[in-house]
Amino acid sequence: MDPTILNDMFVLGIPVLEKILRTVIVYIALLIGLRIAGKREMAQLNPFDLVVLLTISNTVQNAIIGNDTSVTGGIIGVAALLSINYLFVRLTYSNQKIEAIVEGTEDVLIDHGQLMNSVLEREAITPTELEIAAHKQGFSSLAEVERAVLEPEGGVSFIARKPEPEETRHQELITRLDQMSAEISVLRGELEDLKAK
Fold first, then answer.
1. CB 163 within 8 A of CB 171
2. For residue 167, which of 56, 89, 118, 163 is within the disulfide window of CB 3.0 to 4.6 Å?
3. Does any domain span residue 9?
C-alpha cells in the first residue's frame, strides 16, 4: 500500500483551530442569513426556496473544509458543527429572549378568517401558496380557515373556522328534512303496497 494514501486520508491540510473556526463562522453566518431571509426559507413553500437551501449546503462546503479534504478534517468539521449546534440549542432553550432573536416569533397570516396581506407580503407568501399549504392539512379552501400562523421554524399551522350557530342549526334542519323525506318515501311505498293487495 502506498504510504501517501494514508497521509492524504488522515493528515490535516489546515490546522485544527482553523478548521473549527471556519465551521463556527459558517454556522453563525448561515444562522444569521436564514434569520434575515425569513421563515419562508425554512418552510420550503415552493421549488425556488428548496433550490436555494440545497445550493447553500454546496456553497458553504468549501468554506468549511478549505483546502483540506482529509477524513480527519471531515470528522473535525462534523464534530464542530454538531457541537456548535448543541450549544445554540441549549442556549436558546434556556433563554426565551435569545430564542426569539435566533428563531424569531410566529406571524399570523390569517386572523378571524381574514388574510393579513401585509404579513403575507413581508414574508413573500402568496395567497395561492398559503392555500396549497392549507390543502396539505386537509382544508379545501382558505374560507374554512379561522387562523393561520407561520411558525418560527417555517411551518404553517391552520385552525379551522367554527360554523356560526345559525349555520349549524340550518345544517341540522336540512339533515332532519332529508331524513323525514326518506321516511315519507318509505311510508308511501308501503302504503302503495298495501293498496295493491
1. yes
2. 163
3. yes
Same domain for 72 and 137: no
Could you tell me if 15 and 93 lie in one domain? yes
Global pTM exceeds 0.90: no
Instruction: Express each pLDDT in 119-141 by its tens digit.
Output: 999 888 899 999 999 999 999 99
C-beta of residue 50 within 8 angstroms of C-beta of residue 43: no
- Count of structural domains, the chain: 2
Answer yes or no: are the C-beta atoms of 59 and 108 closer than 8 Å: no
- State whether 63 and 46 are in the same domain: yes
- Residue 110: DSSP 8-state: E
Which of 184, 186, 125, 116 has its CA nearest to residue 146?
A: 116
- 18 assigned to some structural domain: yes
> From CA 10, how far away is CA 157, in angstroms rounded?
47
Do 102 and 88 form a contact (C-beta atoms < 8 A)? yes
